[in-house]
Recover the amino acids of this structure.
């Protein structure tokens, strides 16, 4: 369901549950509240996402991607962290800057990186 909107994911949840009344029962809200979520095209309120996920097997990432982003987004951050830690992409790890004579006096500001490296 990667390409589904949150509203489409909610609609699929109602379809799996069989009715808006069942959605209301699972979320412990009135049927009017569940009806309003569907009619307004709004997202499922955050406090009900995990209940709906447990009852329907529709991922929280699809129901509320703003609250539960997909792991691939986290993976990109982890990759960037890894690049910073290993010194790839022109970055130098913090411990190398402090403990290496090679980097003493080097200005790592992007605009002056070459000036410091030429010393």
């Amino acid at each position: 369901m990667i390409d589904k909107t949150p509203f489409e994911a909610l609609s699929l949840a109602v379809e799996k549950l069989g009715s808006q009344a069942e959605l209301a029962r699972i979320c412990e809200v009135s049927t009017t509240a569940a009806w309003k979520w569907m009619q307004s095209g709004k997202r499922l309120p955050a406090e009900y996402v995990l209940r709906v996920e447990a009852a329907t097997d529709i991922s929280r990432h699809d129901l509320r991607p703003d609250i539960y982003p997909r792991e691939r987004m986290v993976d990109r951050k982890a990759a960037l962290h890894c690049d910073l830690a290993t010194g790839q992409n022109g970055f130098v790890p913090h411990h190398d800057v402090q403990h290496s004579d090679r980097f003493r006096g080097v200005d790592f500001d992007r605009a002056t990186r070459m000036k410091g490296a030429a010393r």
